[in-house]
Write a structure and sequence with these properties.
The complex is a heterodimer of chains A (634) and B (300). Helix content of chain A is 57%, strand content 10%. With 634 residues, chain A is α/β, with parallel strands linked by helices. Chain A folds into three domains: 209 residues, no CATH class; 170 residues, Rossmann fold; 80 residues, no CATH class. In chain A, 48% of the residues are buried. About 1% of the residues of chain A have low confidence. The longest helix of chain B is centred in the first third of the chain and has 31 residues. At the A-B interface, helix 6, helix 11 and helix 13 of A face helix 4, helix 9 and helix 11 of B.
């Protein structure tokens, strides 16, 4: 779901002042203020019924925050979330009743159990299409419920009874107020952790996957791993909420963990605004509070609830409190007078580091030096049905050169690119990069080996700012761990700052620094292509593949592009180029390969290609060769 | 062996009900990529309309052929109208806005239908006339087959064949298939997209209603909650066969019916859900597009 920018209405003067004060606080302080107001408010009201409802709202909010990672951030449809709630609840319930553990001691185990369950289910199934995932998760939820119903050790359909309330430092907690305190504490932790995740590189990776999974993978985001991470972490919060639920209710049975619960949690997220943290809070208030408020309708209350729900979706499909598009942050931490050389220096340092690592890691392996073979394609065959798109194509690209692949439409150029970058698996043939085979690796792993690419049809992440697009390109070089992201550690902050700086410098390198904060789609066609180039360079590739970078550019822009391509080559990056613009290709290339109907018909220096009779025939047919010479010679 | 064949007969009968509902999921999904969660509840609505006609209005006392026609045709039309109303009122405004919102609306619609039925027909189990069709049957070796099972199975097959012929043999059916492949291209070819979407909803609802009535006749009792499990099984069937694929939904439905019947027969009824979903997950892991699903790139 695309984030929607919401215009802020101005409040009355007094309140406006408070809001500014609130907005200026760091996030943790805002969470604290919110929880204090909520807690004190309920305590002051002093009504056991209201307190109980508030505890339920908080429980649902924790569930919602967890599922929001899966649904709102990673964009995966999960219809079996109740399973995690159940696994957490049963783990804690059994540990507390059978082994007499302290509630707080059971929490880590409850979380680990759910995380493990998520990993076991997620690993084989998360590569499925999103709609299929819906039914698989639904099935998981139902299987879990049936399994616990039939599990005699855990009481079968009667469940686990007599779960004691939690105790802390010798104090026995038990009143609804106590539970409110515990639930608000857990909620606060969940709010902080999910907020930090959302604003870390993982959050960025998830947005990229949601926007365009194919492009995300192709620029180096390990999409399967990230989806699994979202699923497992979402499950862990579900487990935590379940553990709390068990100790609070005191007796759990399988009917608490039905499909309806999964739906309700999903519903509160979408109702509040998918991916939005305040949305989850508002959503849980509505989903728990509304049926309570509708008690006077008694038997018709679910009917009224469903009608209100449908109407609500109709008038506000984006949710009550939708996710606000992140405003581009100012570029903090940049000293004045810094030049784009810094990007270049960082790249050079990285290049040296990689070569050093290669030398040490593989005895006998030596990275390709200048002018030596960097990429070797041998006997490449790709077939779609009866069509041989690429037929026994072999070529070598040497380090430091600009190598172009040309050919009429349908000649198989992009297919060659897709095979090299792992988007397609070739039918036959070998592709070796710096002496190691690339065949069979997923695209993001190939990016990590040092291949960057751009796309024939522009594939930027449309609802991300320009600089965020480039930051996604830096993803494969990032070393931040998940726990660091969740805790927002100093190391993680430093990494984020560095990423931001580098993104800016790569934009400077392609001449787009001024546009950094705009949405990618607001740029002109030519500029969007340049953002793609910056994004590809940000991964510090040793080889970049540009697929028709000049398409749709005017002559001036093409001239600039030639400059950029040469600059890239001068950085020590080898370039492979596909383009139809002959004057550009002829001017910039060191060597050219010509494909026609999937067959390599010529390979050589530009002058040789222009004179090659086979090439002329491929382009223009027989007897019209003179014009071709003119056309490509111009 | 005898037991196995007996379970097979039961499985195919029940499976044919699932297949009909699964077809509704698949047709609607094929056209607008929406998992219409209300599909199972439409079946429930059909079953209740049929019950109202047969029991409340006394159609069961009419000549059998007339009663049967009324009990199938009117619920099918009525449910189709309900589904058209749902489409027009709830889904249409959201169609090009947000996939999440429309999904939640579908869930809300399922909840609404269930609770509306609760208000109209009450919470109790409503009994279908028990002796509509002769409960007698015939024996094939060790297997006993009732005429009712044969009749219901053949009716399902007839409906499915009709649908298949419609989708592959008529102009508008071809338009439906075109739309399933590419909305924009179909629109450019002059296909009235809205009309085809309406048609998909009508067809889906009619098949669901027919299966609802058949369930009523077969089990002789219905309840307002029946839509949930039915919808779940049918959805599973549609995905197992490859969602969006019509023969896939038919085969998927039969397979789920058989699986359920064998599990209940050899293991225990309480493990049905686990076995059904376990098999589904296993199939999807091996063949991610379902049994008949073609490799469709989500977005390339």
């Amino acid at each position: 779901m695309t984030p929607v920018p919401v215009p802020r209405r101005s409040l009355p003067a007094g309140l406006e002042l408070w809001r500014r004060w609130f907005d200026a606080l760091p996030f943790w302080a805002r969470v604290l203020v919110f929880l204090l107001i909520a807690g004190v408010g309920v305590w002051y009201y002093n009504d056991p019924y209201v307190t109980a409802v508030a505890v339920s709202v908080a429980t649902y909010a924790i569930l919602g925050l967890g599922l929001n990672i899966v649904v709102g951030y990673a964009g995966l449809l999960d219809l079996g979330y109740a399973a995690f709630f159940a696994i957490g609840a049963y783990t804690t319930a059994l540990l507390m009743t059978q082994a007499h553990w302290n509630f707080f001691a059971t929490l880590p185990l409850a979380v680990i159990m759910t995380g493990t369950a998520g990993a076991i289910l997620g690993y084989p199934t998360l590569r499925l299409r999103s709609d299929y995932l819906a039914i698989v998760t639904l099935g998981f939820g139902e299987m879990t419920r049936v399994a616990i119903t039939n599990w005699d050790y855990a009481g079968g359909p009667n469940g686990v009874l007599g779960i004691p309330p939690p105790s802390i430092l010798g104090f026995q907690l038990g009143s609804q107020m106590d539970f409110l305190g515990v639930s608000l504490f857990l909620l606060g932790i969940a709010m902080l952790a999910t907020h930090h995740l959302d604003h870390s590189r993982l959050g960025r990776g998830w947005v990229a996957i949601r926007e365009d999974e194919f492009a995300a993978e192709a620029v180096g985001v390990p999409s399967l791993r990230l989806k699994l991470l979202a699923y497992v972490m979402g499950g862990m919060w579900g487990g935590l909420a379940g553990a709390f639920f068990a100790t609070r209710i005191g007796a759990i049975d399988p009917t608490s963990f039905t499909f309806q619960l999964s739906v309700l949690v999903l519903l509160l997220i979408v109702l509040g605004g998918s991916g939005s943290l305040p949305g989850v809070l508002v959503g849980s208030l509505v989903v728990v509070g509304l049926p309570e408020a509708l008690r006077q309708f008694s038997s018709q209350r679910m009917l009224v609830f469903s009608i209100l729900l449908i109407i609500m979706m109709l008038i506000r499909p984006q949710g009550i409190w939708p996710r606000v598009r992140r405003k581009p942050k100012p570029f903090y931490g940049l000293e004045g007078g810094e030049s784009s050389d810094h990007a270049v220096e960082a790249l050079r340092a990285h290049q040296r580091e990689v070569e050093e690592r290669d030398r040490r890691a593989l005895t006998g392996h030596r990275s390709a030096g200048q002018g030596e073979v960097l990429l070797e394609v041998k006997g490449l065959v790709q077939q779609f049905g009866g069509l041989r798109a690429v037929d026994d194509v072999s070529f070598e690209v040497r380090r430091g050169e600009i190598f172009s692949i040309i050919g009429p439409n349908g000649a198989g150029k992009t297919t060659v690119f897709n095979c090299i970058t792992g988007v397609q698996k070739p039918r036959r043939g070998s592709i070796r990069f710096d002496g190691r085979s690339l065949v069979g690796l997923p695209p993001h792993a190939i990016v990590s080996r040092g291949l960057g690419r751009t796309f024939q049809g522009i594939r930027l992440f449309k609802n991300m700012a320009v600089f965020e697009n480039v930051m996604v390109g830096i993803y494969p070089r990032h070393r931040t761990m998940t726990w660091q992201a969740m805790l927002h550690t100093p190391g993680e902050r430093r990494d984020e700052r560095r990423t931001l700086q580098e993104a800016r410098r790569w934009l400077q390198f392609v001449g787009l620094e001024e546009e950094a904060g705009r949405l990618a789609t607001e740029l002109s066609y030519a500029d969007q292509r340049r953002v793609e180039i910056a994004r590809a360079l940000a991964s510090h590739p040793r080889l970049v593949l540009f697929d028709e970078p000049a398409a749709g550019m005017n002559p001036t822009e093409k001239l600039e592009l030639i400059g950029v391509i040469r600059k890239i080559r001068d950085l020590g990056i080898t370039v492979i180029l596909i383009d139809h613009d002959m004057s550009l290709v002829m001017r910039v290339s060191d060597r050219i390969a010509v494909l026609d109907h999937g067959v390599l018909i010529a390979l050589g220096r530009p002058e040789e290609i222009q004179r090659d009779p086979a090439v002329i025939e491929a382009y223009l047919g027989r007897d019209e060769g003179d014009e071709m010479v003119e056309a490509i010679g111009s | 062996m005898g037991a196995f064949l007996q379970y097979t007969v039961i499985g195919l009968t029940v499976g044919s009900f699932y297949a009909l509902v699964a077809l509704g999921y698949t047709i609607v999904y094929g056209i607008i990529r929406l998992i219409n969660f209300a599909q199972g509840d439409l079946s429930m609505v059909g079953a209740f309309i049929g019950w109202t006609l047969l029991v409340s209005l006394g159609f069961q006392h009419l000549p059998l052929w007339l009663a049967l026609i009324a009990a199938f045709v009117i619920p099918m039309i009525g449910t189709a109208l309900v589904n058209l109303g749902i489409l027009q009122f709830a889904y249409k405004p959201l169609l090009h806005k947000s996939l999440w919102a429309i999904l939640i609306t579908a869930l809300g619609m399922s909840l609404f239908l269930e609770n509306a039925a609760l208000q109209v027909w009450g919470p109790s189990i409503n009994a279908y006339p028990p002796s509509m069709l002769p409960s007698s049957g015939f024996s094939l070796g060790p297997v006993h087959v009732t005429f009712l099972q044969v009749a219901l199975f053949l009716t399902s097959l007839l409906l499915m064949a009709g649908l298949y012929a419609f989708v592959h043999g008529t102009m508008i059916g071809t338009a439906m298939r075109a739309l399933a492949v590419d909305h924009d291209a179909a629109r450019l070819m002059g296909i009235d997209v809205d009309q085809v979407i309406r048609l998909a909803f009508v067809l889906g609802a009619m098949l669901a209603a027919a299966s609802g009535v058949m369930i009523g006749i077969y089990y002789t009792q219905i309840q307002f909650t029946m839509g949930f499990l039915l919808g779940l099984r049918a959805f599973t069937a549609a995905v197992l066969g490859g969602i969006g694929n019509i023969p896939g939904a038919m085969v998927g439905g039969m397979l789920i019916g058989l699986l359920e019947s064998y599990t209940a027969g050899y293991l225990s009824g309480k493990w049905e859900t686990v076995i059904v979903f376990g098999v589904l997950i296993a199939v999807l892991v091996v063949k991610p597009t379902g049994i008949f699903g073609e490799r469709v790139a989500e977005r390339m």
